[in-house]
Specification:
single chain; 14% helix; globular
């Protein structure tokens, strides 16, 4: 019986901020929390966090990095007292830390982003999909998980 293909573990990333500002094809997360959360779906169900600084260092690492293939992301925002948050789907690229926060260049795919808004969450697609555990990025992510467990 042939060996089964290696399992693929794809981490989704989550960034939270106290506000957002958009203009001229950019989106700035204001009051960004210092950690980016990651999680994976079945079969592994891995969850954890890493510094946003470290997340940005990995942005351009590997042949299938976010710099090569910018990820889709969903921005959800809302104000206290509103019935439900709003959301928009964007492609994010070229992250940069500014004096105001973390700025991404964006292309809006669905929905409309506000010029400003309060608390928000950015859900970022998996890095380098699909990945096998033996790919360069897969090995780096496996090493990253080991570092976080120490």
């Amino acid at each position: 019986m042939p060996d089964a293909p290696p399992a693929t573990v794809e981490d989704m990333f989550v960034q939270t901020a106290s506000g957002i500002r958009t203009d001229d094809g950019t989106m700035t997360l204001l009051g960004l929390t210092p950690h980016t959360i990651y999680f994976s779906d079945r079969p592994e169900r891995i969850v954890g966090h890493l510094t946003t600084h470290r997340f940005l260092q990995w942005w351009s690492e590997g042949d299938d990095s976010f710099a090569v293939d910018p990820p889709n992301a969903v921005l959800a925002w809302g104000e206290p007292g509103e019935d439900a948050p709003e959301e928009a789907v964007v492609v994010i690229s070229d992250p940069a830390v500014t004096e105001d926060g973390l700025r991404y260049h964006i292309e809006t795919l669905q929905g409309a982003l506000p010029a400003t808004a309060g608390p928000c969450v950015l859900f970022i697609d998996p890095l380098g999909r699909p990945l096998s555990p033996v790919s360069v990025a897969g090995v780096r992510r496996r090493d990253m998980r080991r570092e976080r467990r120490r």
